[in-house]
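Researcher: Next sequence.
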Amino acid sequence: MRSYAIGDIHGQLTLLTQAHAWIAADRARVNDPEAPVIHLGDLVDRGPQVRGVIETLLAGQIAGKPWIVLRGNHDTMMAIFPEGRRDPALREGLEYLHPKIGGIPSLESYGIDCADARPLAEIQADARRKIPATHLRFLIESPLYHLRGEVLFVHAGIRPRVALEDQTDTDLTWIRDTFHAYTAPHPWLVIHGHTPITAPKHYGNRVNIDSGAAFGGPLTAIVIEGRDVFTLGPQGRTALLPATD
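Model: Next structure:
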């Protein structure tokens, strides 16, 4: 069983277009037009082309492309910001417009003025007027995970030894330490993002493909055959083997 996946996009439309091109080239080599492409969430924030990313993914799904888009924590934060809501999992002292979150570039991609002097309520009102409702629904209604054969795709990870149906939104979109520290096998190979690293890494029971596109790094695209993982690039496939360290 073959699947493709793309890591955290964060408003990097040029990198997303490149990743889709690598996947298209691999599809042509293996003659498989049907294998899904799972986008692991965090479409938005920090990067400059958020509107273009959302429009591209929406248009692809409408056109019938086998694209699955999962919801990440940043997608949730953007979707509820116009309503004046805050994700309760966000650390105390941080808000959506804080530079560490990176919400301002998302809003600016829709022509919203986020100048410091503007009251928050005015910015939120502009967001309600200027961000299409279809875009906000797309973000908040995207699934939290996708299970395909022996592989589970999710934005952040899972709480170990907890049934999939008992995982919370916060687990699936925010978890880090508890998930990362667990080295025993999960019921599936877990493909995730959320925690940026310099290059994709296979840990044996999980594979992190957030290679830091939000911070100037590349956007990783992979193909999974059964439980075998390969990164994709201009030269084709490169095996991503479990790390020994």
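Model: The chain is about 30% helix and 20% strand. The helical segments are 13-30, 50-62, 73-80, 103-108, 120-130, 133-141, 169-174, 177-180.
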